[in-house]
Amino acid sequence: MLIVENLRVSYDRIRALHGISFKIDEGEIVCIIGANGAGKSTTLRAISRLISVEPGTKVTYRGDDLLKYPADKVVSKLGISHVPEGRRIFDNLTVLENLRLATFGRKDSSQKIDQDLERVFAIFPRLEERRLQRGGTLSGGEQQMLAIGRAFMSGRELMLLDEPSMGLAPLLMLHMFEALKEINQEGGTTILLVEQNARLALQFAQRGYVLEHGNMVLEGQSEELLANPEVKKAYLGG
Amino acid sequence: MEFFFQNLINALQWGSFYALIALGYSMVYGVLMLFNFAHGDIFMVGAYIGFGVASALVGFSAMGALALPNWLILALTIIVSMFLTSFVGMIVERVGYRPLRNAPRASAAITGLMIGIILETGNLALLGARRVSFPSLIKSTTYDLGGVFVTNKKIMIVIVSLALMYALHRFVRKTKWGMAMRAMAFDFVVVPLMGVPINNVARMTFALGSALAAVAGIFFGVAYPVLDPYMGVLFGWKAFVAAILGGRGSILGACLAGFLLGFIEIFVPMIFPSTLRDLIAYSIILLILTFRPHGFFGEPYSARLRL
Asked: How far apart are the C-alpha atoms of B15 and B18, rounded to whole Å?
């Protein structure tokens, strides 16, 4: 579904990604784990075109060159949504407005959009209760639900998730990953997530990549990575 | 008491000009975090476009090509000029600001000053240094409301201005474009992730602000029928003051501050010599800002301006 080849990104002439390659198949859940500053968020931002990539990078999405689309078209045309680091809810918009804004570029009928809204509320009933509240008044967990709901509304072929577990209590975290599994299994949404919490990510995903200092150093099935002594030592606490 | 109400009407009219222009400053500042210092000159361009459209329509009418009543000419002038001036705003955005979206803010600010000078001197080059007078479309009728004299022009200006402000408020609150504008004001960076083409939202913001400035320009021409290429300079600065006083991106704030400026400017000369008008008026504003640095309805900046 998505093939990334030789992805290179620099910030102010300091290279953050040194030509990484990876791929995701339709319907998969794939994770990229790595320490803080390894380049995980940069990878997602490059795919959603929030930052520019260096020449030589190739990103192919369903056989099409993804890099020819601007950021908003990656969402509205290709159906690739991105839950950014820190959720980035619009505090000044209501929950409902946050969700509706995410459908800005969609060409679907309003019935179709209302149906999707129903789906989001079915997955996260909490959001329906709070639909007229401003985003800024939500708790951290509710904001994460809203961020995922927003991604669901904007495009759901492929969902990119940046540290969705960050700042969540363990129970909320489980609930959220359950919801993501549901979105993946019932809606057929492919998921790429990046996480510092490697154990959690590998339990959730089928496959994983390990990113270190802007290089992909390992890849494999989740069980393999969970059993890998080096991964254990570096990311799973021994 | 009549004296007070008499001046109240004048202040409402004067405040309408400021409020209509301030909205353009405030929206652009809110959505794009930049000061469009050319906006006062867009008001001037709007007035001239209005002058051109009105003169043309009056001309056609006089030739008997299409006999339009004056009120219809004025209405058409307003609509056509809003439309045309919004294109001027969109061009300013495209040429002047979009290439500098990620440049230091100071560069974008001087761009505005330069575009302003280009618009002023461009007008001079095009029409020469003579002032032009706006065709008088409405025959002035004065009503005596218990000792307070009100002209039909003033009533129209105030009512149409208020109606437009309300329409803008509804637009920003209820439409998806308005929603996108508010989202951009809060967190510019992640708005594209919602599938929103931010360049189009920026263009829309400039277009709306410019259309309102055009209405202010036409109304100014209706009330004070002499136009000159530099009419937008001081007026623009004062409306800019109103926008800041109202608070970043706040529509209600810009309107209230615009009217407040009108009131202060009209009422100060009632008490003090009129040569001291602006000195005193703007000292008051400075004092208000000292105590409310974010303006009436401004919120402290969102920290979320970067990835």
From this structure: 5
Residue pLDDT, tens place only, B248-269: 889 999 999 999 999 999 999 8
Evaluated on CA atoms A177, A130, B189, A60, the torsion sign reads positive
Chain pair A-B, CB pairs under 8 angstroms: 79
Measured between beta carbons, which residues in chain B are less than 8 angstroms from residue A134? none
Does B104 touch chain A if contact means CB atoms closer than 8 Å? Answer: no
Which of A80, A87, A90 is the mutation pick for testing B, counting most B CBs within 10 A? A90
Mean pLDDT for chain B overall: 90
Domains of chain B: 2-291 (1.10.3470)
CB B136 within 8 A of CB B54: no
Give the burial string for B131-145 (b: 16+ CB within 10 Å, else e): ebebbebeeeeeeee
Query: In the predicted model, is pLDDT for residue A23 greater than 90?
Result: yes
pLDDT of residue B301: 56
CATH superfamily of A2-235: P-loop containing nucleotide triphosphate hydrolases (3.40.50.300)
Residues B51-101 pLDDT 10s: 999 999 998 888 876 778 888 999 999 999 999 999 999 999 999 999 988
Nearest-by-Cβ selection for B192 from A50, A97, A150: A50
B196 vs A72: CB contact, 8 Å cut-off? yes
